[in-house]
Design goal:
88 residues, 2 helices, 4-stranded antiparallel beta sheet, 48% strand, 3-stranded antiparallel beta sheet, alpha+beta
């Protein structure tokens, strides 16, 4: 699993956090119910955005809330990213 912090030229002023996972997007969408992000200054939970990165990797993404963006960019030293999954 790899974490990615990224922005998009098509969506200026917005920042996203994603976690790459092995598996097809259909399976990941079925089991990933919610994401939670926590730093020493911020916390949020949200429904995930899930897309296929390549033939073997999906990415679970959340957008940083605008009001928490400055604190994340300037004061964060610790980052936790969690995924609530459907029971097997």
């Amino acid at each position: 699993m790899q974490l990615n912090v990224f922005c998009s030229e098509k969506q200026p002023g917005r920042l996203f956090l994603g976690m790459e996972v092995n598996g097809p997007v259909g399976v990941v969408r079925e089991v990933a119910l919610r994401v939670a992000v926590e730093t020493e200054r911020t916390f949020w939970a949200d429904a995930p955005i899930i897309h296929q990165k390549d033939s073997q990797i999906s990415e679970i993404v959340t957008e940083f809330p605008t009001e928490q963006l400055k604190a994340f960019l300037t004061k964060t030293k610790r980052l936790a990213f969690g995924v609530a999954k459907k029971q097997p």
